[in-house]
Amino acid sequence: NHQNPLTPMASTKVDDQEDQSYVVLPLYPPAVLRRQWRFRLICTGTLLLLAVATYSLWPSVPDLKVARFRLDRIHIQTDPRVAIDITLALTVQVCNRDLYSMDYQSLDVAIGYRGKQLGFVRSDHGLVRARGSSYVDATLEFDGVEILSDLIFLLEDLSRGSVPFDTVTEVSGQLGLFFFEFPLKAKVSCEVYVNTRNQTIVRQNCYTE
């Protein structure tokens, strides 16, 4: 019988070694690596400082709230028509959270009862130092205000000793930083409950408009 000789298979070990590719990385001396790390740290620190400075110096809206509210006088008249005379004394607190002073040209406060405006008062010009607060006192006298539809509610509130008032406080001015000035305007509405027995604020709910 004739048998075919076995043909040995060629080894691929050498071919595999020839197909392999190598990446040769440059070897940096320690001094170069230290300079690279120092540069990256400086860039990162600079960006963080810029972010903190921008956050700190960016102008913010001042906080406005009614610090004190006193019902000095209330008189109900029935002739020639049903009306009410009210004298209110209130103090508005203006808080400046920025790192520079706030100069406001006007501060307006409107007072209402159960959605009906009684009147308003304006305070001209004021300065609030950086990270400080300023208190603005105002006295409002309303004579002959007709609230016939809400007279029953007012009598009930007076008998309970707590009267809810609506206040809208608006301030306009500017914030000063070195030679720069940023325009400022803020408006806050509050529902203030006044205890008529000891003339204190029971609670107030405020929101920014």
TrEMBL record:
Annotated compartments: Membrane
InterPro entries, A to Z: LEA_2, NDR1-like
Any single biological process term in GO: defense response to other organism
Chief place where the protein resides: membrane
Pfam families: LEA_2 (PF03168)
KW Transmembrane helix (keyword) present: yes
UniProt KW keywords: Membrane, Transmembrane, Transmembrane helix
Transmembrane regions: 39-58
Topology term for the membrane: Single-pass membrane protein
GO cellular component: membrane
Segments forming domain Late embryogenesis abundant protein LEA-2 subgroup: 91-188
Name of the protein this chain belongs to: Late embryogenesis abundant protein LEA-2 subgroup domain-containing protein
Biological source species: Davidia involucrata
